[in-house]
Amino acid sequence: MKENTILVASTASTELAMKLAERLWLPFTEMVRKRFADGEVYHAFPEAVSGRDLIIVASTHDDQSHQELIDLISGGRYWNAASINVVIPFLGYSTMERSKPNSWEIPKGITRTRQIFRARPNFVAFLDLHSEAVLHAHAGDIRTRHLWSDQLVVEAIRASGISEYALVSPDYGYSKRVARLASLLDCPHTAADKDRYDTDRTIVSQVSSVVRGRTAIICDDMIRTGGSIIQTANRCLEAGARQVVAHATHLVMAGGAEERFRQGPIRRVIGSDSYPGRVSDELFEVYSVAPLLAEMLEEYLER
């Protein structure tokens, strides 16, 4: 595999791709990039990809990164790569996988994933998807893989030094995943009552007494604005939790979320580097998903 493989990344996912290359014992290949005066972007592979297995690491967290991924796939096709294997640590618009009847809204989780598939990669892997509906947004000719980061989450919580904890799902929709993690950690779990009343607005009404006297660890797939998680933290404290910690795979932290967390009731936020730019500091404990991605790619490409 290694002699015939070339690993590249989108601009934003370069740091994670370098960690992945190290785990795979592969050289990381930096794309040649330039920006012209009129705003057009130049990309070039620095070496031949013809007949080689191309790995592309790219989160699609903004429009520019989404388009760059499509350009990289299309470039691999143009220069006759033997196979094009895409790893998307964070899929943008992943919460918009369906539209309400008669709303005429565009379900961009599906439509944008279709754009990626239509660029004709051979294989696409996703990490901790909000919904698996996007896996089926192609005609059946592309192999897909949904990776769950359960073992990384368990290792991160065990390494955090927290004891006597209970896991809390911020809503019933995520409770099955939280129950699975609680089983692996051999700890109690519960789910909060949450209702959504606008695009980015929710209300959390209560949390069970399971958290009483314990550290409540609120687990979710992503923290976007943080509103519902902070509300859940307050309900946990009202239910008798000793303290509150949050975990999310994807640390989006949009719209002033980071400042709200620094001023709010949550002592610590544990999460991964799937979302570009997230690093550890006095609030965040960030672990890398590179080991999980490396294990998956080695298994897939050695077939």
Overview in brief:
With 303 residues, this protein is of the alpha/beta class. The chain has helices at 14-24, 63-78, 108-118, 150-159, 175-185, 227-238, 257-263, 290-301; strands at 5-9, 32-35, 41-44, 53-57, 83-88, 123-127, 143-147, 165-169, 189-191, 194-198, 201-204, 215-223, 243-251, 266-272, 284-287.
Topology:
Elements: E1 5-9, H1 14-24, E2 32-35, E3 41-44, E4 53-57, H2 63-78, E5 83-88, H3 108-118, E6 123-127, E7 143-147, H4 150-159, E8 165-169, H5 175-185, E9 189-191, E10 194-198, E11 201-204, E12 215-223, H6 227-238, E13 243-251, H7 257-263, E14 266-272, E15 284-287, H8 290-301
Parallel strand pairs: 1-4, 4-5, 5-6, 6-7, 8-9, 8-12, 12-13, 13-14, 14-15
Antiparallel strand pairs: 2-3, 10-11
Question: How would you describe this structure to a colleague?
Answer:
β4, α2 and β5 form a beta-alpha-beta unit. The protein is 30% helix and 26% strand. It has helices at 14-24, 63-78, 108-118, 150-159, 175-185, 227-238, 257-263, 290-301; strands at 5-9, 32-35, 41-44, 53-57, 83-88, 123-127, 143-147, 165-169, 189-191, 194-198, 201-204, 215-223, 243-251, 266-272, 284-287. The mean pLDDT is 92. It is built from eight helices and 15 strands. By secondary structure, it is an alpha/beta fold. It folds into two domains: 2-147 and 291-301, Rossmann fold (3-Layer(aba) Sandwich); 150-272, 3-Layer(aba) Sandwich (Rossmann fold). The strands form four sheets. A six-stranded parallel sheet has the order 9-8-12-13-14-15, with helices on both faces. Strands 1-4-5-6-7 form a five-stranded parallel sheet, sandwiched between helices. It has a two-stranded antiparallel ribbon with strand order 2-3.
